[in-house]
Amino acid sequence: MSTTTYNCTSDDQRAEGLAHAQKAIAAKQVVVMPTDTVYGIAADAFSPQAVATLLAAKGRGRSMPPPVLIPRLNTMDGLATDVSDDARRLAEHFWPGGLTLIFHSQPSLTWDLGETLGTVALRMPDDKIALDLLTITGPLAVSSANRTGQAAAQTASEARTQLAESVEVYLEAGFRPTEGTDPLPSTIVDATADILRVVRAGAISLAQLREVVPSVLGLGEEPVTADHGGEAVSVDGGEAVSVDGGADASDEASYDAAAALLVDAAVPAVPESPEGLDSPVELQTPNAPEKPTAPESPVELETPISLEKPTAPETPVELETPYAPETVSLESPAGPEGSVGAVAAAGGAGGAGGAGGAADAGDDAVAGDADAGDDAVAGDSVMPPELPPAARAVPRPPAA
Question: What pLDDT is attached to residue 69?
Fold first, then answer.
């Protein structure tokens, strides 16, 4: 790939250089362009291949995604979502200029800037050549034109010393921002939360930001609380924090470190106890309705009820032999010999032996004794049911 440098201070070379840069961007190549802060290396934001070429030229991985430069303010709504009124006011007041705003990116976009965690950093530069190029190419992924860890380039010549043949077009437009000054990065403000927060100090001071949006939090500051009299609380002295090694801290540098600062700063402060104690306030859990207790069982059983084999009932009390009427001897034979005695004997057996035998047979049957069943079949110990006393008495024959 051939590399060409154009002197954009000349009208002819400027037009030729912009046309070549547009073609290089369309071919997924990278170019070096001036901005209002330092020089940047640019690629098509919607081409994963071009973005990968940009990161490779800088010696940077996907964990450090580049911001995106846009040609006009209304492009912001096409690339970002959930733009708050405060963020819009800052953009309207400071764009074009040295302010970078971090938003949630539109989920429908098919770009791949690296590991952005669903965010995008947008800026509209205050540089005529940069805006002219953005107008004909559309949004560009831009990072500072230097190898990672090296000094940011303030001229295209300085950028070419570091990036060499990895860039197809260099647009030289003189010293940036002005000769004899140090590189000044843009101020990065996180606009993904309800309260805006500065995550990198830069060209726009906190005082300038608060003139437009008074609630902007500075570096390390926490939201206003009543305990501090309406003043924002600084947790680290309010000192400026470099996000990517100092020399590489330009507005076109990746904002991943700034996002890390954002995550740390976004942790809410623990409120102090109203009694002035050092320990945090212990939040009491609201009283929950008591769980209704189950009614007590009328009978408390220690063990679950189980179906056990019923025990045999106790042998009933043996009753005395019911009264039997006296046997009357008949002189004249009334039937076969011994018939009356047999009947009497049968009555006695049914009264006493029958009750006891039936009880014994019942005990065996309830207890499950196998012999009781055999006895029943054989006829042992099985007695007919007990007759009432009136039935057992032998009627006295009428007098002769």
Answer: 98
